[in-house]
């Protein structure tokens, strides 16, 4: 019984490993679509390369041809994106490539958001403590004729 259970676990592990390995093995068309959607057309339209819908766009067709040529040469996704970035500038990338100094483009906005949130909380807490410590609440003195007259005048002026 134990041998059968070990055998089933071993088969399940092998199947899981094969599935993980096969996730990266897609057809060339899916790789073309993936890379084409990670770049921006440089005709100043600001659209994704494969979705540039300008009639007779002078830039998208040559870029798509270059993408096909790079894929045919067998380069990795990162090397192809780096080639396009070297030729057209970093503006061609729809998102920065993860790694190196480009990580700042991913980390900085999140870090600024959290630091601003924490800073705002600290400032609000300091202001709250300052007003609570500095405030001396004076109880209303009953029978103060000047204060009663003022309250009555305020009530009369604010009623409809």
Automatic annotation (TrEMBL):
Quick one: signal sequence residues?
Answer: none
- Family membership, please give it: Belongs to the CcmH/CycL/Ccl2/NrfF family.
Segments passing through the bilayer: 9-26, 106-127
Q: Which InterPro entries match?
A: CcmH/CycL/Ccl2/NrfF_N, CcmH/CycL/NrfF/Ccl2_sf
In which organism is this protein found?
Granulicella arctica
CDD domains linked to this entry: CcmH_N (cd16378)
- Domain (CcmH/CycL/Ccl2/NrfF N-terminal) spans 30-133
Q: Name one GO molecular function term.
A: metal ion binding
Its job:
Possible subunit of a heme lyase.
For this entry, the protein name equals: Cytochrome c-type biogenesis protein
- Keywords, sorted A to Z: Heme, Iron, Membrane, Metal-binding, Signal, Transmembrane, Transmembrane helix
